[in-house]
Write a structure and sequence with these properties.
Layout (H helix, E strand, L loop, with lengths): L7 H10 L1 E2 L3 E2 L4 H8 L5 H14 L11 H10 L9 H10 L20 H4 L4 H9 L21 H14 L8
Helix pairs in contact: 1-3, 5-8
Protein name: Cytochrome c
Pfam family, one: Cytochrome_CBB3
Keywords: Heme, Iron, Metal-binding
C-alpha cells in the first residue's frame, strides 16, 4: 500500500537500486531479490519488469510533486509541534529527522516517512521492524545504513514515533 501511485520510473529505480524516492527502500525479503537477484540482470530486463509492473499498477505518469498526498505529508512534516507535549514528535526530531527529510528537498535514500508504504499499512510490523533493526548496508541503497534502535528506544518510544509518523501521513493510529 502506498499513498502515491507507483509509476514505471519508480519501479525501475526501486528494482535497480533498492530505493524509490517516493516509496522507500528494499529490506527484509526484498533486499536479496534486488541486490543479489535483479542486480545481475541487464538494465533492459529491469526496464521490461518496470513497464510490466507499471501496467499492473495502472501507471498514470502523474508527477508525484503535484500530488495532494505529497503536499499534505510535506506540510505535516514541517508543522510546528509543541515538542514539550508530543513525545513522538520530540523523539522523531531528535532521533530520525537528521536523516529523514527535514528540508524542502526530497533526498534519495532519506525518504519522507509519511510517504513510505510501511507507514500506510494496516499492520505496523514493517515500520516497527525497521525502527528496531534498521537497514544494513546490503539493504535499500547499497552502502546507506540506518542504525537500529532496538537498544536505544523502549516500546513506549517506538509506539510514540510510529504514532507520530501515522499522524504525519494523515492515517489513524494503529490499535495498541
Amino acid at each position: 500500500m502506498s499513498p502515491l501511485p507507483w509509476r514505471v520510473q519508480d519501479f525501475h529505480e526501486y528494482l535497480r537500486t533498492g530505493n524509490s524516492l517516493f516509496h522507500g527502500s528494499a529490506a527484509g525479503p526484498m533486499a536479496p531479490v534486488v541486490h543479489e537477484g535483479l542486480s545481475a540482470l541487464p538494465d533492459a530486463d529491469i526496464k521490461a519488469l518496470s513497464v510490466y509492473f507499471g501496467e499492473l499498477a495502472g501507471d498514470n505518469n502523474n508527477e508525484p510533486a503535484a500530488s495532494p498526498k505529497l503536499q499534505t505529508a510535506d506540510q505535516a512534516q514541517h508543522k510546528t509541534t509543541d515538542l514539550r507535549i508530543d513525545h513522538g514528535a520530540r523523539l522523531y526530531n531528535s532521533t530520525c529527522s537528521a536523516c529523514h527529510y527535514s528540508s524542502s528537498q526530497l533526498v534519495k535514500g532519506r525518504p519522507l516517512l509519511a510517504l513510505g508504504s510501511a507507514t500506510h499499512l494496516d499492520d505496523p510490523s514493517n515500520l516497527i521492524n525497521v525502527i528496531l533493526d534498521g537497514f544494513r548496508s546490503d539493504q535499500g541503497i547499497r552502502g546507506v545504513v540506518m542504525p537500529q534502535f532496538r537498544e536505544a528506544l523502549n516500546d513506549d518510544d517506538i509506539t510514540a514515533i510510529a504514532t507520530y509518523l501515522r499522524q504525519t501521513a494523515n492515517e489513524q493510529p494503529w490499535p495498541i
